[in-house]
Amino acid sequence: MIECEIVGLNELKTKLRKLPQVVADATVNGQETAIEQAEAYAVQELQSSIKYSTGELARSFKHEVKVDGDEIVGRWWNSSMIAIFREFGTGKVGEQSSKQLPPNVAIVYRQTPWYIPAEEVDIDLTKIYGIPKVKIKGKYFYRTSGQPARQFMTPAANRIAKEAPGIIKNVVDQELRDKLGD
Questions:
Q1: What is the DSSP code string of 107-118?
Q2: How crowded is the C-beta side of 58, counted as CA atoms within 13 Å?
Q3: Which of 7, 101, 113, 172 gets the most CB atoms within 10 Å of its CB?
């Protein structure tokens, strides 16, 4: 009669019991890492293209990762009202500027110029953006027909869409090694 001893069977069973939860947690962490990288790309785009900044846009990113049944859903957005105007432009100028719109989204742009009271703005819009300043009944206003789209989130989202599978895979691989061993 031949006797056989399996060494490490209990350890293997323990690791196999832990495996589903470790993979699920690691996948959530990988999604979180990918979203944080998208945010870093967007901030980099902002910093390279912005003429005047208080840092509000860069500080206004929000994200969440939720598990919904078998799906892991990540959302990323900017909570500043300025973000949507910068991303898609405003007025006729924004409408005519080059941009990538999300699928099934149509934006309606104002077609008439508008006036911004100069006293309500703490920067010189003529100097920074070339918006003309006019005097009406003794008060100064900036007259604008809008600003072009200066996308920062869309390019970041496009870039991370290509990189996310690799980022998530690397996080899952690392967490499997860290939590279950080699």
A1: -----S-EEEEG
A2: 14
A3: 172
* CB contact set of 50 (below 8 Å; sequence gap of 6+): 57
Tell me: the pLDDT tens digits for 48-64?
A: 887 777 788 899 999 99
Q: Is the pLDDT of residue 182 over 80?
A: no
Q: 73 in helix, strand or coil? A: strand
User: pLDDT tens digits for 9-35?
Assistant: 888 888 889 998 999 999 999 999 999
Neighbours of 15 (CB within 10 A): 15
Six-digit token pair at 179?
């939590």
> Nearest-CA neighbor of 119 among 90, 141, 138?
141
Written as one letter, the residue type at 148 is: P
Q: Which three-class secondary structure state does DSSP give residue 135?
A: strand
3-state secondary structure of 1: coil
pLDDT higher than threshold 90 for residue 8: no
Rounded alpha-carbon distances, angstroms, from residue 34 to 9, 14, 26, 30, 138: 36, 30, 12, 6, 53
The one-letter amino acid at 109:
Y
List, for residues 67-76, the tens digit of each pLDDT value. 998 899 999 9
From CA 93, how far away is CA 109, in angstroms rounded? 9
